[in-house]
Design brief:
The chain contains 23 helices and 10 strands. By secondary structure, it is of the alpha/beta class. Strand 5 and strand 6 form a beta hairpin. Helix 16 packs parallel to helix 19. The longest helix is centred in the N-terminal third of the chain and has 22 residues. The protein is globular, with a radius of gyration of 25 Å. The relative contact order is 0.12.
Length: about 450
């Protein structure tokens, strides 16, 4: 068992019985489910919309070699620059080169999972470059020194009392400050940073191939400020974020909003097509898009599992998953947690280290049911399990156990060879720790049903 798997088991064991954590998550997710139910009711034909989105993403993944160069060419026509990064190290190095060239000392960021993926904040801090998160949830977890808890709502694991205490300690607000007062304080701190930051860094919800543009969706306006005031704007986006046309946004933006937060449409939806032109009054002087692979082509090579790249990062599968709701987002020790993270992480970061995530599932299928682009998530989890076994990543003890179980199940006489007393002894001594820590182990009958039937009927 790898260290990641051991840590996952230990942390999930603790989190599952943390009553305060459970209370906060149940409250926050309860509000989410109410909003989403209301939002989805506004869509006339949800299933048709999901099927169409699935088909578009399928077409993109099957033709990435066409759509990515199309995006690149159209973006460059407007004066933008495209950089291809094979991995996190290369992406960070390219970003540092841009910052050094501009003598930049401060960065303002909007919410971006791709920057979390490459650990950009830590990298820039090592090179003495100040980096500040401008999304309120990201800003809160940055103050705490934590990673985002959730793909969409980074501070979902915190109550308003937790945040009030944090702001009191870090920013000097009253200990009993209201959410409105806390928001105003964050705004006061961040506004100054927008004006003084040398570089703005964002992710991209979608890359539009036909116009060479990036599409951003948000609720706070911080992305617009991060891309407008600084002289340089850097976009970091996974290669799977491309969609064929700007006209596809009329499908993907509502799907993302309703499944992500329950809104019909998020408050701010922005399309950016390059650096400021001569006739424009605002925007950056330079704009870069870094197209990030970082293991995505490994997943693309898996024909059966590549649909994991269809994900639009709405977080719906996390909110539906009974495992995630019990063990929480930090337990996964990955950028992308929950069901979709369990599908893609083993391919992006290594099956041997992260195969255990594909077993952290009840296989109830709720994740597949709620996915706005119809990714067959629970099937992908099973395929990951299959691949890990096929590639010999199971322990000798596990192999011997399944071999013995198979032998016993193939012939009744082998099952009856070991009596009930021996079976109960094996259960108590070999399964107590693994399966019976919080459960009463079943007491097996002294004789099997078939043995009892044989004795009773004489057959």
């Amino acid at each position: 068992m790898t260290k990641f798997a051991e840590d996952f088991l230990e942390t999930s064991d603790n989190k599952a019985f943390d009553l305060n954590h459970r209370r906060i998550i149940n409250f926050n997710m309860g509000r989410y489910h109410t909003a989403v139910e209301r939002g989805l009711s506004k869509l006339a034909n949800l299933d048709a919309a999901k099927k169409k989105a699935h088909t578009i993403k399928w077409r993109v993944m099957e033709n990435l070699d066409k759509y990515l160069p199309e995006f690149e060419a159209n973006f460059q026509k407007k004066g933008g620059k495209v950089i291809w990064a094979n991995d996190a190290e290369e992406a960070n190095r390219e970003i540092l080169n841009i910052l050094k060239k501009a003598n930049a000392r401060s960065v303002i960021k909007s919410k971006s999972m791709s920057t979390e993926e490459i650990h950009l904040n830590e990298f820039l801090e090592e090179h003495h470059i100040e980096t500040l998160e401008s999304d309120l949830g990201e800003y809160i977890v940055q103050l705490l020194g934590q990673k985002p808890y959730h793909i969409v709502t980074p501070a979902m694991h915190l109550s308003k009392e937790d945040i009030a205490k944090l702001f009191h300690e870090k920013l000097g607000t009253p200990a009993d400050a209201t959410p409105e007062q806390l928001t105003l304080k964050a705004r006061e701190v961040l506004r100054e940073k927008y004006l003084t930051a040398d570089v703005g860094i964002t992710g991209a919800n979608f890359l539009l191939a036909d116009t060479g543009s990036i599409a951003l969706t948000e609720n706070e306006g911080n992305a617009r400020l991060s891309t407008t005031f600084p002289k340089i704007h850097i976009v970091i986006a996974g290669i799977e974020k491309v969609i064929p046309s700007i006209t596809d946004l009329d499908l993907f933006w509502p799907l993302l909003a309703t499944h992500g937060t329950g809104q019909n449409l998020t408050v701010y939806n922005t399309i950016l097509g390059g650096p400021r032109q001569d006739w424009e009054t605002d925007g950056p002087e330079e704009m870069y898009v870094i197209l990030l692979d970082n293991g995505r082509t490994n997943l693309l090579a898996q024909k059966e599992q590549r649909q994991g790249l269809y994900c639009i990062r709405c977080g719906a599968c996390l909110n539906a998953c009974p495992i995630y709701k019990n063990v929480g987002g930090h337990t996964y020790e990955t950028t992308y947690s929950g069901p979709i993270g369990s599908v893609i992480t083993p391919h992006m970061k290594g099956m041997e280290d992260f195969k255990h995530l594909s077993y952290a599932s009840s296989l109830c299928g709720k994740c597949t049911e709620v996915c706005p682009v119809k990714i067959d998530i629970h099937k992908m989890l099973l395929l990951n399990r299959r691949d890990s076994v096929r590639d010999g990543m199971t322990t000798k003890v596990e192999k011997m156990g399944w071999k013995g179980w198979k032998k016993g199940m193939l012939k009744r006489k082998f099952m009856d060879l070991v009596g009930g007393k021996m079976k109960n002894f094996l259960m108590r001594n070999f399964f107590r720790k693994a399966w019976g820590k919080y459960r009463e182990l079943p007491e097996l009958a002294p004789k099997s049903f078939s043995k009892q039937w044989q004795e009773k009927s004489g057959e």
